[in-house]
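Filed under: proteins

Residues; backbone shape codes:
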Amino acid sequence: MTTILSGAPGAPAYPHAVDLDTLQSRFDVLIDELSSQPFSAVALSKALAGGVSEAAAILRAIPIQEGRLLERGIGIIADLNPDLVVLTQNLRLPVTKTALELVEKNDPKHFRSLTLDADTGGRKTYTPDLIVVNRNTKLAHVIDVKRSLGSYEVSRINELKSRMLAAALVVPDLLYRDHHRLVAEEVRVVILNAENQRADVAGGVWPLSDLDHLVEVGGAGKAIGMLRERFHGRIDENWKLARNSIAGPKEPGRWGASADIADANGSETCDAGSITEVHQPAGRGQVRVGFARIPRTGTG
């Protein structure tokens, strides 16, 4: 049995840890599913033979599949913690004018105890990649996974964080109403950056290496990093086969070295509809909303 201990800085000792021997087969199936069809040697050969446009199209698809790989990989690892509920479907959250004004014009201490009605319609919505809820601590994390933030301007990141905080105000009501009476007494938002650069832990932008803290599983960050590397390796291997089938062996370069591909895992949408005022639903206690925080004692 190969168990990966946490490599995240300042990580507490969590009761659950990644066992690579157990995850190996699940990771292999996931990589096969997301790489074999769109990025098989045959598909890549056809794209290369088809010219620049077809080759560019298949390169643009890589970040999309990688985003799916990361989301599903995180879900697999989170399942190792029996206290967690991982939600990935039907997560479109309303972002109302009222909620945005609360977030943009107030200190978090002034709105962190509010809960807004999830049934409120609105023009704007936000769809997170995952919502992870700990049944014991009643802490929910709203997670947005980014392959890279390299092409994001600071203003765009700040806009995304504001949308996430505004959407988080409806999460307790949504969980209670639509997800088997799940209770969240605190909601934290976090952007996970797979390339581990431009981190702002206090401001809700975390490197993927800190995944341990979100799922409370030792070695989670290292394991998801290994999954990503193996996905890249599979595409590299297929790329070499495709290139050799057309032009014969040459010194290969990495598939992404010549392409500056922006992150394609967008999760913000805009729907038609009127803006409706929201109210705080009755029947539940105070709920705190804010950025994710790294625990130092293992208590969240």
